[in-house]
Amino acid sequence: xxxxxxxxxxxxxxxxxxxxxxxxxxxxxxxxxxxxxxxxxxxxxxxxxxxxxxxxxxxxxxxxxxxxxx
Length: 70
What we know:
Elements: H1 5-30, H2 44-69
Helix pairs in contact: 1-2
């Protein structure tokens, strides 16, 4: 009989690892002058908000991994 618990735990761990990584890559991408012209770069306030969002996703991802492995 199929037990879904290992699959659910693996999905939680994957989400906990991928969410902060993707957020960080977005942060790097929207601030890369080789990709985005000066006209469209984020302001320091927008960068602060995105950094706050990254920290929240890092906390949520770590919390998700912690609870999945507990």
